[in-house]
Structure formats: structure tokens, C-alpha cells
Amino acid sequence: MNKKIIFSKQTFLIAFLVFVNLLCSAQRSETTFFNDSTKTKKPQPIDILDVVKEIQIANEKIKESEIKSKISKDIKKIDSLIPIQQEDILLNKKQAEIFIKANPNRQKINNILNKWNIYNSYLEAWQITINNSIQRNARSLKETDYNEKVWQLTLESSKKQDVPTEIISNINSVFHDFRKLKNTLSQENKKYLSLESKINDLNSITLDIIDQLENLKTSPIYNVLYRRHEPLWKTTIPETKVEIPRGGDKESGGIKIKNTLDFFKTFEHLIYLYIVIVLIIIGFLRYIKKGIALFEYDQNNAFLKKSLDLISHKPKVIIAFICMIIAKFYFSNAPKIVEDIFTFLVLVLAVPIVYKSLTEKFRNVVFVIIFFYLYNTAKAYIWFESYQYRAYLLLEASLVMLSLYYFTRPYKKTRKLPLKDLSLFFVKLTPLIYLLCLTSIISNILGYTNLADVSLKICTQGSAITLTFYGILRILEGTSLALMHRHYGSKGNVNLLKKVAVEKKVLKFVQTIVFILWLLFFLNILDQFSTFIDFFNNLLTEPYVVGSITFTIGDILSFILILIGSFIATSFIGFIIDGDEGALKFLRLPKGVPNAISLVIRYLILAFGIVFALSSLGIDLGKFNLMAGALGLGIGFGLQNVISNFVSGLILVFERPILPGDTVEVNNLLGTVNKIGIRSSNISTYEGADVVVPNNNLVANDLINWTLSNNIKRVEILIGTTYGSDPNQVLEILLECATNYTQAMNDPAPVALFSDFGDNSLNFRLRFWVHFELGLKSKSDVSIAIYNSFKEHGIEIPFPQQDIYIKSTPDKEE
Fold first, then answer.
1. What is the pTM assigned to this prediction?
2. With 83 labelled, which of 245, 359, 405, 551 sits at a CA distance of 20 to 30 A?
3. pLDDT, tens digit, 9 for 90 and up, residues 585-594
4. Burial of 369 from C-beta contacts in 10 A (0-12 / 13-18 / 19+)
């Protein structure tokens, strides 16, 4: 056994060093492979003996290349659409230049930016398609050129030798076919390059307009404290209206619908992937909903009940809500109207999710939030004169204040109500919303319309994203609790304190993530998201030099985040997969196999996580080859015990002589295995102590596993009776006591045996089988039953006796 173990350790050690060496040389190997694959072999003539077979192979290659070289439908479609797109872009370029001079509001600039970003998406998608065709064509051209030279040399060689005329003719035919194919590929390559050049020209125009619009957004006239208009009392209503061109966001509904349909036709492949995502979401919701129905939960826990009831009773609404959110970001370059429709549907679907979570007094606030979202969004589709726009903002601010007063009156009494979650958040922000509305009204009157617009956006759009993210939070809390409920519910014995602690950690993590995302979206409302990103991008990419080392804060953060992410991923996988009742339960794997699978996945994630983390620092991993050799020496000397325990842990996991939950006995230590770790295992004794045992001790020493194949144990009771008792009656009584014991197993059946004739007693043995954990209790119960039965039948249990014979006694005097 020990030889096998030593051999296993040596084998794993060699494999481990080879794996480290491969990982360390990943970058170098990748580069070498790429360079070797692109080397051109020197053309050589084909041997005349093989030429007939090679002619047949060459003809098949030519047919295959001709099929592949045909211009695809996508390229033909792009070729036909480029003139239309070019005309459209040039027309809209002129209109965009007029629009820029028309002093539009920021919302309309975002509208036009969206439109030009869609143009950019079209062109980039076309460019990727053409680049792929060019690369594929270049590979075919290179191969065809090589084959042409080979068959040219073969033709010349065959003419010098005594080769039949038919074969020379066939060789000549193959040679000319390859030359013809080469010319065809060259012509197609020129066509692809011409298309790519046209797309680059259009993309250059598109990016130039996008830059102009971005510069317009950041110009001083859109600063919050910039006075764009005269005070309201100095404003005059103009007699004529300025006509804004179509490119200035005054497109007809038919054109908007046409643009939307064109977008979805162009990115049709995205729709298929989106359908797959929707199906996955449906399957996931059904899975966790089934878990809620299968296992009972604490009905007295109001928060748990509310969260799980949301998943159980409103799965269709939740699926639709999640799908609309994914669609909003998945089709991020869709026309603005599509994006706004998605947002509106998200808000509508959020109502049934959050409605009952609100205090009854504030439940109708959700409908008011949707109304103000529509009111605010309308500004992007209606072109206002400056006085109309200011009146529109004044009306909006007044409506917000009236709505706020309606829901919070009287405010002092409302604050004293027992409020929670979103209702409490809404009431606490009431003074701030009043202040923002007053700021909007005053700044509008004074001509600071930028400040008026931003103040109202914080109130209306901020409320919309708060409603959305509260719905997301409720769903994430419900799904997290449902997953943990299913995970722990499938297990027999659950540590409730540990379960509650894990639930609290997960909920806190979910709430933190949702808050961070809400904050980022709130910055986007203020048009400060790009500023925020630029600031941190500059901060994280600023290079610092220490000696000969150059690094950035971003590299260090990437290193730390990759490592943290790897450890979180391993913990999550261990939580989901570990145990026979884990996520792999449906595969019905043998006991312990899910733990082995989990271990392999976790080690791979950690290994690649370390490699990626080092790569993020810009470290050349090829330099670690020498370190791998040094690591081997270190393992052979200083780290021998550590690696021995590590390899022993792997042997325990894959060979499975012990598993978590088994009762084992090693070195006079009896207890239950809690965990098999990397270096050591944890065994809980029946005295309540947790003993850390090195894995090598469990592999190298004799190990008794009481519950490896099954968890039943034989209990043996030794008892004696006086010589005057009837042995047959005693055997009947012993067998009856064991049979009547409810915890004793019928198979194997209890056995009562006469043992031997003792010095003072007739000795008997009673053997019966019980579950391991009932061993001590069953022995006690059956022994008491035997004693009571013996007493009832008058059978005595002897005790040791000794007769003393006194031959003489001393005299009194003495």
C-alpha cells in the first residue's frame, strides 16, 4: 500500500511541475505557435509515383476553395447597402451641422448621439464581416499560391522525365486551375479592400460627427450655472418659428419605425442569442420556484416569506421584468425610441413587484413616477421654442411639488409612521425634492435653464431608476434566498445558525452591488458618468516608476480583483457543488464524486486566476520557467511535508477512502470527518473537540472507517448466569430482548450464542446490528431489558465468589 502511495505522490509531483511549466510559458508558447504556423514552406515538386493520387486530392481542394471563395450573401448585402448608407450619412451630416448651431437642449443632443452611434454600429459590424472575409481570403490565397508553385515545379519535373502524356496533361490542368483560382481570389481581395475603404470613409465621417456632438455636450453653454436665456420677465414670444431639419430630431413616426426595423434586421443574430438568454432565465426561475415548493421554510420570518412569495407567485412578471432590463442593455445601440419603450415597460413591470412592499399610503407613488418619466422623456421628441421649453419645465416642477404634497401631507405625522424600505427612503428625501423643485423654478425664472433641467431630472429620472433598482433588489434578494433555501433544504441536518449567517452575508453583498449600480446610473442621469469614468481611467492608468519597475494603480487593482474573484468563485462552486445533495444531485454520482469534481474545478480556477493576475501586472510568465525548477528543488527539500500532505489530500478526494460525514478511527482518535482540506482534514471527536489531522497521517497510517460502505454497526453484549439456570431459556430471553428492540435491524438478524463454561457462570453472547450513531444507546437499552427479563424469570447474574478455608486460629493470649 505504501509503495502505491509513494508512486502516486511522485507521479502527481511530476504532473504538477509540468503543469506549472506550461502555465508559466503560456505567452511564449502562444507566440511561438503562431509564428511557426505562419512560416511558408519551400515548394517542392511532387514525386511522380504519388502524382496520380495528389492530382485527385488537388482537384478536390480546388472545388472546395471555389465554393469557399464565392462572395457570401452578407458581403453582397453590404455592397448593396453602402450607397444607401452613404447617401443617408452625408444628408444627415449636413442636417447635424445645422442642428448643432440650433442651440438644442442636452436631451436632444443625446438623441442625435444615439442615432450616430447606431450608424457607427452598422459600419463596425460591416467592417468586422469584411475583415473576416479578407483574412479567410488571404489564407486561401496564400495556400493557393503555394500549391500553384508546387504544381508548376511538378509540371517542369514531369516534362524532364519519361512520364505519360495523359499524366502531364492532368498536371498541367491542375496547375492552370490553381492559377485561375489565385486570380479569382486576388480579384475578390481587391473588392473586399475597396469595400473596406468605403466603410472606413463613412466611419470617419460618423466618428467626426460624434466627436462634434460630444464636444457640444461639454461646451460651457451646457454648464449647470450657465445662463442660457434671459430672465423670464424679459423674454418675448417670437412671431416666426425656426424650422429644424429632419436630422435635428424631427423625424416622422414612419421613419423612426423604418430605422427600428432596419436595426433589428441588421443585428438579427443578436435576437437569436437573446432568445436563448430568455429561455435560460425561464429555466432558472422554474428551478428555484420548484425548490421553494419542495421544502418548507419559516413562515414566521416576514422578510423571508415576502421574498420567497414574490418568486412563487409572480414568476411571469419577474421573467418579463428581467428580460426587458436585459433587452435595454443588450440592444444598447437600438434607436432611442426602442430604448425608451424598454425603459417604460421596465417601470410598468416593476409595479407589481414593489407594490406590496410599499406602505399603503405611498403605493400609488409608482404610477406618478411612471407619469413623470413619460413627461420628462417627451422633451426628447418635441421641439420647443425657448419660451415653450421653459414653460414646460415650470409646469413639470409644479406638478412634482403638488404630487409630493399630496402623498406626504401632513409631513410631520407622515414621518412618524412605521415606514420601511422604499417608503422610508421616499419620506426622508421629501425636503430635498422640495428644494430641487424650488431650485428648478427659481433658476428657470432667472434664465438658468440648465440648472432647472438638471434639478428636475434628479427628481423624475432619479425616481424612475430608484423604482427600477428597488425591483431588481427585491428579485435578487428573493432568488438568493430561494437558492439557499433549496441548497440547505435538500440536506438532512442543517446548522441553522450557519444558514442564517450565510443568508445575511449574501443579502449584504447583493444590497451593496445594487447600490453601486444605482449610484452609477444616477451619475449618468446627471451626465457625469463619462466624467467619472475618465477621472478614474486617468488615475488608474497613470504610470509610476520605482527603480526598474513600471506599474499603474490599475494593474495592481486588476491583480487584486482577479485573485479575489478567483477565491469568491471557488467558494461559490464549493457551496453549490460540494456534498451529495448539491447541484450535481440529478446526475446520481457515487458518494464523494461531486466533492472531487468541485476540487478539480476550484484548483483550476485558482491556477488560472493566479496566471491571469500575474499577466495583468505585465509580467512575462516565460521568466518563471527557472522558478519552476527552483520550486521543484524547494519541494524536494523544505516543502516536502507540505506537498506530501497536499498530494495526500488529493488522494483522499479521488480515492475516497473517507468522506465528509464519515466516522473514522485513526491513532486512537474516534470522530466524524468535517472537512478534507488541502493540507489537513478536520475531525470532530465525540467529546466535542475539533482535531486537525495532517492528510499524510490519514493515508500512511491504518485507518478505520466505520461508515465507508454503510453506517451499520454490530453491538455485542457479554453476560453470564448461574450454573442453576437453563441455557435454552437464557438464549430465548436474550434473542427476545434483541428482537423486541425497535432500533435493532432485522437483516442481519440478532443472534444469541452460548459462549463457554466459566469459573462461576455460564457465559453467553448477544449480537445485533443497529445504525452506527445508536451504538452506545442501543447497548444500554438492551442490557437493561435483559436485566429486567432475567429478574422476571428468576435468573440470577452471578458475581465473582471466593471461598476461604482457615486451618487454625491463634490463641487469645497470643
1. 0.68
2. 245
3. 666 767 767 7
4. buried
Q: Are 658-709 and 712-792 in the same CATH fold?
A: no
Burial of 124 (0-12, 13-18, 19+ CB in 10 A): middle
Question: Is pLDDT of 692 > 90?
Answer: no
Q: Which residue has the cell 442642428?
A: 99
Contact criterion met (CB below 8 Å) for 414 and 194: no
Q: Does domain 658-709 have CATH number 3.30.930.10?
A: no
772 Cβ partners below 8 Å, 6+ apart? 663, 706, 707, 711, 712, 713
DSSP collapsed to 3 states, 182-229: HHHHHHHHHHHHHHHHHHHHHHHHHHHHHHHHHHHHCCHHHCCCCCCC
pLDDT digits (tens, 9 = 90+) for 705-739: 887 777 788 899 999 898 888 889 999 999 999 98
Top-level class of domain 712-792: alpha beta
Cα–Cα distances (Å) from 654 to 180, 217, 325, 681, 753, in that order, read 60, 62, 43, 15, 42
Between CA 175 and CA 55 the distance in angstroms is 10
DSSP string, 243-269: PPPGGGT---HHHHHHHHHHHHHHTHH
Quote the mean pLDDT of the chain. 80
Q: Residue 627: what residue type?
A: M
Strand partners, 143: none
Residue 799 phi/psi, 5-degree rounding, is: -120, 160
Domain layout of the chain by residue ranges: 1-38+542-638, 66-222, 248-385+454-528, 658-709, 712-792
Find residue 543's DSSP bridge partners: 552
Bridge partners of 704, per DSSP, are 665
Contact between 713 and 772 (Cβ < 8 Å): yes
Burial (CB count <10 Å: 0-12, 13-18, 19+), residue 108: buried
b/e map of 391-407 (b: 16 or more CB within 10 Å)? ebbbebbebbbebbeeb
Would you call 49 helix, strand, or coil by DSSP? helix
| 479 Cβ neighbours under 8 A, 6+ residues apart | 288, 311
SS3 770: strand
Q: 451: which 3 cell numbers? A: 440648472
